[in-house]
Amino acid sequence: MTKGIKIVTIGGGSSYTPELVEGFIKRYDELPIRELWLVDIPEGQEKLNIVGALAKRMVEKAGLPIEVHLTLDRRAALKDADFVTTQFRVGLLDARAKDERIPLKYGVIGQETNGPGGLFKGLRTIPVILEICKDIEELCPDAWLINFTNPAGMVTEAVLRYSNIRKVVGLCNVPIGMRMGIAKALDVDASRVQVDFAGLNHMVYGLNVYLDGVSVLPQVVEAMADPSNAMTMKNISGLSWEPDFLRGLGVIPCGYHRYYYKTSEMLAEELEAAETKGTRAEVVKQVEKELFELYKDPNLAIKPPQLEKRGGAYYSDAACNLINSIYNDKRDIQPVNTRNNGAIASIEDDSAVEVNCVITKEGPKPIAVGDLPVAVRGLVQQIKSFERVAAEAAVTGDYNKALLAMTINPLVPTDKIAKEILDEMLEAHKEYLPQFFQPVEA
Ligand code: G6P
């Protein structure tokens, strides 16, 4: 790769793109990017033009010889790419709003990654990512696919199971956010904090925490028990934890665990929000509008701080650190979504897990943790079953599998409610779910 690196970002018109560009600029000395291709679909053309122009200004301001290309032609972009990052949203934020709102009618949290919303986001996204995988196989077979598209765990699972791509890594900013939150609660610099992460995407636990190499897990549990340390992300309520529950759990949950351990309180908050300020998708739409207004300013040549209102803080650090470590064979430790390969004993070897890995030029090598603690093992396995059945439904368009996935999701109370939600959501997302609406043969 001495010629310089070619990166392709699918969903390049996303408001998150300046994060990525900033990350590449910061690391240019180690990560000499020659070409950055931002790819989008015709509906995203306007956003692509705005964000692409900002990306060009950022590169120019930094005085770097990175060529930024904007295109709607995915296949042209992919030719000979070294890294392909994916950050697209099938159906855009309107589809997310439906994912969040429809289940609420049935007294169920929608949630775009964990609940029925996550199921539908997976059903819409997986066929598209598998098409992208076919293009990668043909046009840039040596490239690494770095997926950010949610539900990132389910998408990684689907790529591992249903495509020929093996150089795939699923990424999320939740572990970085947890590490930063812990550092803040301990009032120390994050560089001194290490966390043993293990679980699944948005279902990841800190099994141990170290400050300068010495375990401080009990102190972190106590810090988390303090309601003033919400330790959450912009997109998730910071409802406080029951301190004795945390002490009993004995490991560090992530922000998304509130959906499972505090279901009714979270539901009450979401119902109220839906009535007042809108669901998260509706709030984000407003934030995006403001961001794109800023991005349009020809004098803006940096990532505006307002981007931090989105849940994806540190997103570029996760992506750029990963790409940097693969490219430079850094062998540092990063939490990513990858094939388990026995790292977590209670999950199948060929399933995707989110776990600390040594990042090499051959990709992530997961670090073995053995069995998960009994307190969390069952929930992790249940979510893995949900992800696997959902991925199968996405690929086959099998209604019964989709109903099964909906019903075994822990946020859905009964098979009947699951069916009602499923039917309404299938209809609402029909245009993005052709696999469920094949004409019946005569
Ligand atoms: C967190 C999650 C991401 C998710 C994002 C949503 O960062 O880790 O997977 O996409 O929040 O943020 P938003 O601002 O879109 O609600």
From TrEMBL:
Q: Which UniProt keywords apply?
A: Carbohydrate metabolism, Cobalt, Glycosidase, Hydrolase, Iron, Manganese, Metal-binding, NAD, Nickel
Q: Which residues cross the membrane?
A: none
| Name of the protein | 6-phospho-beta-glucosidase
Q: What class of enzyme is it?
A: hydrolase
Chain positions recorded as substrate binding sites: R96, N150
Q: Which PROSITE patterns match?
A: GLYCOSYL_HYDROL_F4
Cofactor section: NAD(+)
Q: How is the cofactor bound?
A: Binds 1 NAD(+) per subunit.
